[in-house]
Amino acid sequence: MKRLYIFFAFVFLLHIISVLYPNEILNDCLGILAFLMFVISFHKASRLFQILGVLFIVTGTSLYFSADLSIHQLPPILAGNLSLLTLLAMLPWMNSVVAAGRFDRLLQQLLRGNVKDLGMLYQRSITAMMSLTAFLNVSSATISQDVLVDNLKPVKRQVANKFIMMATLRGYSLALPWSPLEVLVAMAIFITGVNFAQILPIMMIITIVMYAIDSMWGRYYFGRYHYPLDEDSVNTQKARHKRRKILQLIVALLSFLVIVVLLGNLFDLEFIFIVTVIVFPFAFVWSLFMKRFKSFWTIGWNKWKDNLNHMQNFIVLFVTLAFFTGTLNESPALQMIQDPIIAVSNAPLLILIMIQLLFIFMSMFGVHPIATMGVLGGISTMLMDILSPLSLAVILITSGVATVPIGTYGLVVTITSMSLRQSPYYITFYNLPYSFLFGAVGIFVAYLLI
Fold first, then answer.
1. Is 114 left (phi over 0), alpha (psi -120 to 50) or beta?
2. Where does the chain cross the membrane (predicted)?
């Protein structure tokens, strides 16, 4: 299984070729290869993703027999989500250049900052998390929690745990709505067909609003708790070095966003494909600029291989999800799902609320927001007749992101639960008001865009 990455990489390369040079035979081959990927991955996937996969297969099979589909039409359906899997396969290269540039250490330094109370540290923590999660993703949560657990030892344990589970999860979620590297964003754009340049300023505004509200609340709520000053953090020379690193990170992030937007406007290519093909060249050039290419390549090559060798969960999810949505779109069952929504089509606000509640409800039972978004993608055409593509994209992204701090069996909540030795339901409980507020802001903005 250590060389499984070679097979997966071959399939993803073929997918990139098929986008650049469309071919029916190649699409059929990709569908067969996607099925082989699923067969290979199923027994290595976690129990939760196995259950989701089986549910999608069973439901999709029943839909297949009720739809007007031939066996020859199945391969292209199975290959429907390969673009998302290819994007996931390339993300480790961006994480690696950040690690090579030692920006992960910057996060550690920022969390040991010159602050007098936990309120100031809370604001700094969510700022640091939001800044670096865009590149580091889940790694930022593990790094920050390790640092904060160590730093908050003098603080009462109950207060420290509450601080960590709020600051890290909320800061993490604030980096997701506007990041071109976030799969939820990519999938929402994939479903609705909106341009990234259209959605970016809207998501930035929502992020700023949520950041302002949560940081002010954090300063007020945790401001009563004293924080022991770290003398090393006030070192002037180190402070200058941190400022340079922060500036470099901001420039890199803005450059990446600009490149994605420009290429999206210049070429008639999908957003997911554009991000996928520029991740490695961008990371490569950035590593040369920082004079860290050797570290970048060493870290990146190992991370990339390891990531591909352990993609079983997402392969099972996306291949079976493609089968389910593909058969749903061709079956009479689609009309049965559409009828209740058509019945309330004159109340789009109600539909927006229903979408948000569906994401929250499903997340509490371990269903990944990507899976929920995929199910809604099956009826996206009808939803866009009521909501408009931009409105639907906003509600899908905000609904998905709002579940991140409360997804009881989600990856980040699970990591936090293990780090703090707390029940995931306890973590969900304390972040529930934040998630409902995030969802409410998303509903309000999406309603304005109808």
1. beta
2. 46-65, 77-101, 184-213, 246-265, 271-290, 311-329, 349-378, 390-412, 432-449
Q: Which residues pair with 117 in a beta bridge?
A: 226
What is the Cα–Cα distance from 208 to 171, expressed in whole angstroms? 12
Q: Which two tokens stand for residue 388?
A: 């408009």
> Which amino acid is residue 225, in one-letter code?
Y
User: Cα separation of 155 and 147, whole Å?
Assistant: 14
Residue 73 DSSP class: G
CA distance 150 to 145: 8
pLDDT value of position 112: 67
Give 222-257 pLDDT, tens digit per residue.
998 888 765 554 555 565 667 788 788 888 888 988
Exposure on the CB side of residue 133, measured as CA atoms within 13 A: 25
Please name the amino acid found at residue 184.
Answer: L
Contact residues for 147 (Cβ-Cβ < 8 A; gap 6+): 107, 108, 111, 112
Q: Say how many CA atoms lie within 13 Å of 251 toward its Cβ.
A: 9
Work out the angle at residue 370's Cα, subtended by the Cα atoms of residues 368 and 375, and round it to the nearest 5 degrees: 105
CA atoms within 13 A on the CB side of 163: 34
Instruction: Read off the tokens for 12.
Output: 């993803």
